[in-house]
Amino acid sequence: MALLQQKALANYEEQQGKNAAFEDFLRHFKSSTSETEDALDELNLDGDSDEYDFMDDTEAGADRAQTNRKSTRSKEKYMNMLQDVAEREKSQVLIDLGDLEQYEKSLDEEAALSLSLVLSVERNANHYIEIFSRAVDKVIPAPTTDTNFKDDVIDIIMTQRSKRNENVRQQMESTTDGPIPESIFPPELTRRYTLNFKPIAPSGSSSEKGSKALAVRQVRGEHLGHLITVRGITTRVSDVKPSVQVNAYSCDTCGHEIFQPITAKQFTPLVECQSDDCQKNGAKGQLYLSTRASKFLPFQEVKIQEMADQVPVGHIP
Q1: Is beta strand 92-96 parallel, antiparallel or unpaired with respect to 194-198?
Q2: Is the full-model pTM beyond 0.85?
Q3: Residue 3 has what DSSP assignment?
């Protein structure tokens, strides 16, 4: 008896091959609120202070660079956002699917039908977070200011990782024979931002089923992995806890760094080093976890309950 076959929700190879659409969206999308935001940035609402601070000499150059950058900001919404991320002023990239839908409508009908950008993101949001992050890595501009003693330790670490990856890539391009002693950091460890999707606001007057907010009772297994909007009452919220995304280990024998991507809540930490040096020498180097070099994401659980007007007669929420 033949096994049942389930069609994939998205053609990953075709979507990744058309990743240029996401890059073009990030580079050229213009929001109608950009001019209003620029006008508000030019207003000095905080006022000036005449008090002297010994940090003024250090902050003067950064303030002038920031003022010049804001005065020359373009109208591209996401390029301005990515510039703020590059300048270490923001740590979150929020992609509004309403903007993506507007961009998709600006394309010709054949291209929009073949891409189906918004539909693909809504059907498999977790997968397209990584695809969008790759597009962000390609189009993010270079920072206009260098890191200094005022920045966080993580900013210094991110800068060093990016420079090391760039040096390794240059060695790979110039060297054709022989192994490269250094390893490239995973992209999760060089990203200083967290990317999220903002769903399209549901419309109560719309007749389309997918454009309305769902009740808790209407959530089914078919929605697993989808980006949906649910109406309900929040009954419990957990504390914000760190959720590990990539574990970084250091070997006490060869000194290599080993990275372990974490894709589940439960995992087994690595114990023995798997680097080429340890395998050639027959040494079983012991790995030690480096929390500072690892990547963590904020994690929180929210429990919701049906609203009173959604509960059928004779049932409990």
Answers
A1: parallel
A2: no
A3: P
